[in-house]
Amino acid sequence: MLSKETSVLNEEITKDILLKSIVQELNDFHLQPKEYINLASSILDLATKVQPNNTSQNNEKIIGTFESLPIEFEDLKISELDYKKNKKIIHKWIDNEVARDFIHSRIDDIEFEPEEFFTNKKNIFGLIETDKKPIGIMGFLHYDKKNNKAELRKLIGEKGYRGKGLGKKSTKLWLSYGLYGLKLRKIYLYTFETNLLNIRINREMGFQLEGVFKQENIDDNISKDIIRMAYLV
Predict the structure, then answer these.
(1) Collapsing DSSP states into helix, strand and coil, what is residue 3?
(2) How many C-beta atoms surround the C-beta of residue 73 within 10 A?
(3) Is the peptide bond before 52 cis (omega within 30 degrees of 0)?
(4) Residue extents of the structural domains in the chain
(5) How many whole angstroms separate alpha carbon 179 and alpha carbon 181?
(6) Which residue, 14, 59, 113, 116, shows the most beta carbons closer than 10 Å to its own?
(7) Cα–Cα distance for residue pair 199/18, rounded to 1 Å
(8) What's the DSSP call for residue 95?
(9) Segment 45-73, tens digit of pLDDT
(10) What is d(CA 179, CA 65) in angstroms, rounded to the nearest whole number?
(11) Where does residue 180 rank: exposed (0-12), middle (13-18), buried (19+ CB within 10 A)?
C-alpha cells in the first residue's frame, strides 16, 4: 500500500503534468495574459458545476479471466501472432509515423528493426481481429517471468477501425490474458506527459502514475517529460 507521503507526491506530479500539458496546448493560440485569467475563471466556474465522478466507475474492470490464446469476446478475437504469416500487413501498419511508435522504445528513444522486434522471444504478441479481419496488434514487451512483469503495447493498424473503442476493448482482453495467463503482477507503459488522451484512457483501465522522467527525450525539437504508468496486482 502506498504511504500517505507517496500518494500526495503522486497527486502533485499528476497536477504538474496536467497543467504543463494544458499550457503547452494553449501556447499555440498565442493568448494574452488577460485571456489566460478569463480562461482560468471559466474553468473554475465549469468545475464547480460538475459533480465528482465515482472512482469505481472510472477504474473499469478488465473483461473476463482469459488464461490462453486465442481470446474471443463479442466482436473481437486475439490470437497468437504469426509474424511470418502476417509480415506484409504488419509492415503496412507500421509504415507511418503514428503506428511506428509501436516498435519504438519511448524511454530509450530507440526504434527497433521489425524482424528483431517481432521475433524476440522476450516479446509476446497477439493479433487483433474483428469479423475475421486483422486490424491490429497487442503486445507484452520485456516479459520477465522471474519478476512477473512486462511492458504493454497496443496498435490498431487499420485506420478505419480507430476511434471506435476497439483498442480499449482489446487492451482489456490483453490485460486479462497477462494477469491470468502469464500470471503478471505488474504491467507498465510509457507515454509523453502531453498525451492527455492516452493518460486518461490508461487511468480509466486501472493504470496509476508510477514515475516521471523529467525532460527525458526530445520530440519535435522540444524536450519532454516521459511518464511511466503501472497496473499492479
Answers:
(1) coil
(2) 15
(3) no
(4) 60-185+199-204
(5) 6
(6) 14
(7) 10
(8) S
(9) 665 554 444 333 333 567 889 999 999 99
(10) 8
(11) middle
DSSP-assigned beta bridge partners for residue 144? 149
| Gap between the Cα atoms of 78 and 98, Å rounded | 22
DSSP helix/strand/coil, 113: coil
Q: Coil, strand, or helix at residue 106? A: coil
- DSSP tag of 165: S
Pairing of strands 222-232, 124-130: unpaired
**Alpha-helical runs (H) found in 126-190:** 166-176
What is the average per-residue pLDDT within 95-119? 85
For the chain, the distance separating the N- and C-terminal CA atoms, rounded to the nearest angstrom, is: 11
Please check whether the domain covering 60-185+199-204 is classified as CATH 3.40.630.30: yes
Asked if 185 contacts 149 with a C-beta cutoff of 8 angstroms, the reply is yes
Supply the pTM of this predicted model.
0.74
Q: C-alpha grid cell for residue 168? A: 480499449
Residue 189 contacts residue 201 (beta carbons within 8 Å): no
pLDDT score of 10 more than 50: yes
Distance between CA atoms of residues 189 and 111, nearest Å: 16
Q: How far is CA 58 from CA 64, 117, 154, 202, 223, in A?
A: 18, 34, 21, 10, 31
